[in-house]
Write a sequence for this structure.
């Protein structure tokens, strides 16, 4: 069974094996499991003595950010960045947390970057109760996500500055990637803000005023990121429309050039086709100057057609 535990007493944190996490009294016990196998479920149910509905929630296959109070405890699901590559439809890994007085149980199915950051904070001795630990999780997750959202905005800014008909296909790929990423992140950040705000209002003894302030700050940052992602999504849509218009204008210009060339050569094709017929009695067919005359007439017709198009401003793009 993969995982680790921490025993915190007197401001000192001790890292222990997961199976020994519940072996001695302490101010705070944190047990973290990084798996969803049957042995983990059995340990949570049989050794940790957690209720079945809590075990099912901690080991569920699909989750969304939420917060639920059960008696003196609270169940919290959060989403954060993973060190593994995630799909575009599900870009964030989940952490499921069950907190009650003096104990916190957390479960992840994929490596979560925030877990390492929280572990560093625990080792400093600043975490003394479940409220501190959950606030550290919320802060670490939102702090890690903030640069990701900012990078999406910067990428879109660069695309807007480089808006040009010659780079339509390249820019459309970048804009589509930004738009998909923004939609995927916003899908979880909006309910995550609601979950953090709800947790901050729960009447739990292990949640202190400073914990509630940190949770509200994390919720506010999640709300700001959700708003930024919504703005990025709308800007991406407008950018996509602008690129589509540029592509349409580019095709129109090329079609116009092709039409002009066809109009120039249409009368010339008629004349050359007429004199290319293998029949007798063509006018001036046997005159030595006939070829030069026909070429001159073709040149005059072509010049006349071009001058007409120029006067009609067909060459202006």
């Amino acid at each position: 069974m993969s995982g680790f535990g921490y025993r915190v007493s007197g401001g000192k944190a001790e890292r222990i094996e997961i199976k020994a996490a519940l072996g001695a009294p302490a101010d705070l016990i944190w047990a973290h499991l990084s798996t969803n196998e049957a042995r983990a479920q059995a340990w949570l149910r049989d050794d940790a003595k957690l209720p079945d509905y809590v075990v099912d929630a901690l080991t569920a296959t699909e989750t969304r950010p939420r917060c639920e109070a059960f008696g003196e405890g609270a169940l919290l699901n959060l989403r954060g960045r993973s060190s593994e590559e995630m799909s575009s439809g599900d870009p964030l890994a989940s952490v499921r947390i069950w907190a009650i007085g003096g104990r916190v149980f957390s479960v992840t199915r994929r490596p979560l970057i925030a877990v390492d950051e929280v572990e560093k904070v625990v080792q400093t001795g600043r975490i003394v109760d479940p409220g501190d630990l959950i606030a550290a999780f919320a802060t670490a997750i939102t702090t890690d996500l903030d640069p990701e959202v900012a990078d999406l905005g910067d990428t879109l800014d660069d695309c807007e500055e480089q808006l040009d008909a010659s780079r339509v296909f390249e820019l459309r790929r970048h804009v589509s990637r930004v738009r998909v990423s923004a939609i995927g992140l916003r899908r979880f950040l909006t309910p995550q803000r609601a979950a953090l705000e709800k947790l901050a209002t729960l009447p739990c003894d292990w949640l202190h005023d400073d914990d509630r302030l940190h949770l509200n700050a994390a919720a506010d940052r999640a709300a700001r990121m959700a708003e930024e992602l919504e703005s990025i999504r709308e800007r991406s849509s407008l950018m996509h429309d602008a690129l589509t218009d540029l592509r349409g204008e580019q095709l129109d210009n090329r079609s116009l050039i092709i039409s002009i060339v066809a109009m120039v050569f249409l009368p010339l094709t008629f004349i050359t086709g007429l004199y290319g017929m293998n029949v007798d009695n063509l006018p001036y067919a046997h005159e030595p100057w006939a070829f030069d005359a026909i070429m001159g007439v073709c040149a005059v017709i072509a010049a006349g057609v071009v001058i007409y198009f120029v006067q009609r401003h067909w060459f202006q793009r």
Summary: The helical segments are 38-47, 52-58, 113-123, 130-161, 168-200, 209-275, 290-311.
